[in-house]
């Protein structure tokens, strides 16, 4: 069965510092990886997916199949980045397509 | 566009009582999901509907949980009877078929079982 691990429950950085939220997964096939974010008093929403290779709000994430990791990075953190971040995995294709397996989440706090 | 609607937002019940949650997805979204999120954990999928059919309910505790989406639009999730360990936030999400990676979440219902 697939599994997503976010080793840090809490992560604190200062404004302008680089930030990296770690995500590791276990799955023998070819998964799709995502980052979802939940800002204070807002709904859970998609931040980015590995296939699109986009930079969203300055965040990027690279899928490393060798290390089975999908870490989220931003070179200069902003206070408005403070939120709960979830890494999620979906099996590509088949009847399980769309079924998301979430990690435990990391609370990012960016201090002024 | 209006987002995913859920009600009630909060519910407190005693163990062994019954409870029902309602979800109205975004118009045009064929796929609907119910997740359970226990404090300190990520959301866990309970059941996935495609229109009014069940795609995946492998993690739904079927002895006490049930869900339906009769007309392929809104959905209800029921717990009967509730246990203390059912205390959680129940999230509903919806997506376009073929774009299930982008799920739109509702605000959730926070259930407390005492």
Question: What is this structure's SSE topology?
Answer:
The complex is a heterodimer of chains A (112) and B (114).
Chain A: E1 3-5, E2 10-14, E3 19-21, E4 24-26, E5 31-38, E6 45-49, E7 60-64, E8 69-74, E9 83-91, E10 100-102, E11 106-111
Parallel strand pairs in A: 2-11
Antiparallel strand pairs in A: 1-4, 3-8, 5-6, 5-9, 7-8, 9-10, 9-11
Chain B: E1 5-7, E2 10-13, E3 19-24, E4 31-37, E5 44-50, E6 53-56, E7 65-68, E8 75-79, E9 88-95, E10 104-105, E11 109-113
Parallel strand pairs in B: 2-11
Antiparallel strand pairs in B: 1-3, 3-8, 4-5, 4-9, 5-6, 7-8, 9-10, 9-11
What is the compact description of this entry?
The complex is a heterodimer of chains A (112) and B (114). Helices cover 0% and strands 50% of the residues of chain A.
Amount of beta strand of chain B: over 45%
What would you call the shape of chain B? globular
Oligomer: heterodimer
User: Shape of chain A from CA axes?
Assistant: globular
| Count of separate DSSP helical elements of chain A | 0
Assign the structural class of chain A, choosing from mainly alpha, mainly beta, alpha/beta, alpha+beta, or little secondary structure: mainly beta
- Topology order of chain B in helix (H) and strand (E) letters: EEEEEEEEEEE
Unreliable parts of chain B: none
The overall strand count of chain A is 11
Counted by DSSP, the helix tally of chain B is: 0
Average pLDDT score of chain B: 93
Radius of gyration of chain B: 13 Å
Distance between the termini of chain B: 37 Å
Name the largest protein-protein interface in this structure: A-B, 23 and 24 residues
Specify the biggest β-sheet of chain B.
7 strands, mixed
Helix content range of the residues of chain B, please? under 10%
Number of strand segments of chain B: 11
β content of chain A, as a range?
over 45%
* Average predicted confidence as pLDDT of chain A: 91
Radius of gyration of chain A over alpha carbons? 14 Å
Reading the helices and strands of chain A in chain order gives EEEEEEEEEEE
